[in-house]
Amino acid sequence: MSRFLALSVALGLNAAAASAQGVYTGGDRSGCGISHLMNGITQPRIIESSGTTRSYSIHTPSNYSSTNQYPLIVGYHGSSSIGLFFEADTRLDEAQYTGDKIMVYPNGVGGAWAGANYSSTTMPEDLQFTWEVLADIRSNYCVDSARIYATGLSNGGGFVGTLACNDTVGGEFAAFAPAAGSFYTDNDGPNDGCTPARSPMPMLEFHGGADADVFYNGGPGEGGMLPAIPDWLSWWAERNGCDSQYAEEDGFNNDVHHLIWTCQNQTGALQHYKVDDEKHDWPSTELDFSAIAAGDGPTHIEASAIIQAFFMNFTQPAQ
Prior knowledge:
Layout: H1 3-19, E1 43-49, E2 52-59, E3 70-76, H2 83-90, H3 95-98, E4 102-106, H4 123-138, E5 143-153, H5 155-164, E6 175-179, E7 203-208, E8 219-221, E9 224-226, H6 229-239, E10 247-251, E11 256-263, E12 266-275, H7 289-293, H8 303-311
Helix pairs in contact: 1-8
């Protein structure tokens, strides 16, 4: 275990103790008791949403039991892509990461998610699609509704930010972890239409300092104006009621910077990893597809492991 991952686990003991007081016990459990074949193999599913046929894929643990409630992670792919690519890129299906969780990979219309000027769908449409994906899963699989999480890359990471700013659909999630997020819908201050369902809303963001597609310091992007990541983090610190001073741990010859905020007595409810020489890709110690596409190589940290430690520290509180 890397010291960065170990620190994330240690931070979570504090946050988990705070968030565990009054855990949400609601949510549809009608999927519990329904058995499935071919567990451990990703399966496609089709649903109707906003008058359109939409799709997603689901991966259950190989030892899936219909009587056990599982945490659920929804992973949003980047632009010009599909869920299958994000699945292969992140390796989030591997048992070392999600052997005790359900993974879900929705597909955006036209290979993208709402929020960018190139998007084929509106934000209400993709928010509704997310709502209906969750409803379909919970009515067919046994889900712990207190432990539903979202992650995503690039345009998908930006949509994760959109979800976190939504006080209805976003309220179904316990924590969020975008990577290289293109935050087109959250680029003008802490109160610019962002209304999280609760505060603090746990958030972890990864970003490369050498990202030439979604610039760390913001500016014009492929799909609109992008915020500088330090500004975006400061807005979330304000929304989450975080202490003004954050902690920072630097490693790997000062190439990796881990920022940790304490928010309303929950240490680590807002976190950020910056890798100075990383480009526009999913952070991994192994060469992944997004790194190849970005002309990059492996980096020092494994986001797929770090987000597991982060997510499992937070549950949706009682309502």
